[in-house]
């Protein structure tokens, strides 16, 4: 189960000058839902413990997909959200993935994800994953 769970809806404009790059911007709503971790959803100014936190704001998404060679690809996606009440505090999710087929049987993957959401933590969160895999088709 997602706890906390994050949802975002937006309406706006998209710009796609090529197959490599796409940008979207618009008005958005963001929800944080939690059953057990209500510190992320509760309003401290009320007595009742809220399990749903709604935010209105602006949203922007940048997508970059580039085929480096026949056997390698880089994908990067930056998601930005700014709450109307604190427009100077921007939530960031930046996910970059590099995949490559080294040989017929060996593949490589490297992923970096940066998350900054002031509602969750005042510190940036960074995740890095590197993987090497074997693949073989029996049929």
Question: How would you describe the overall organization of this protein?
Answer:
- This protein is an all-beta fold and 139 residues long.
- The protein has one domain (5-134).
- 0% of the residues lie in helices and 63% in strands.
- A 7-stranded antiparallel beta sheet has the order 1-2-3-4-5-6-7, with no helix packed on it.
- The radius of gyration is 19 Å and the shape is globular.
In short:
Helices cover 0% and strands 63% of the residues. The protein is built from no helices and 7 strands. It is globular.
Keywords, please?
139 residues, mainly beta, 7-stranded antiparallel β-sheet
Residue stretches low in confidence (pLDDT < 50, at least 5 long) are none
How would a textbook summarize the main sheet? 7 strands, antiparallel
Question: What is Rg?
Answer: 19 Å
**Order of strands across the biggest sheet?**
1-2-3-4-5-6-7
Helix content: under 10%
> End-to-end distance, in Å?
36 Å
How confident is the prediction overall: mean pLDDT?
A: 89
Protein topology:
Elements: E1 5-15, E2 21-33, E3 52-69, E4 72-83, E5 90-101, E6 106-116, E7 125-134
Antiparallel strand pairs: 1-2, 2-3, 3-4, 4-5, 5-6, 6-7
């Amino acid at each position: 189960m997602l706890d906390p769970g994050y949802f975002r809806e937006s309406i706006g404009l998209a710009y796609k000058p090529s197959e490599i790059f796409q940008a979207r911007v618009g008005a958005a709503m963001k929800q944080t839902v939690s059953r057990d971790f209500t510190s992320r959803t509760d309003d401290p100014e009320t007595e009742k413990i809220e399990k749903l936190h709604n935010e209105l704001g602006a949203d922007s998404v940048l997508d970059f997909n580039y085929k480096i060679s026949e056997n390698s690809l880089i994908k990067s996606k930056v998601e930005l959200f700014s709450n109307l009440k604190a427009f100077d505090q921007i939530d960031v999710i930046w996910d970059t993935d590099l995949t490559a087929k080294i040989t017929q049987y060996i593949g490589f993957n490297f992923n970096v994800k940066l998350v900054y959401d002031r509602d969750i933590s005042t510190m940036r969160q960074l995740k890095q994953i590197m993987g090497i895999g074997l693949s073989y088709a029996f049929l």
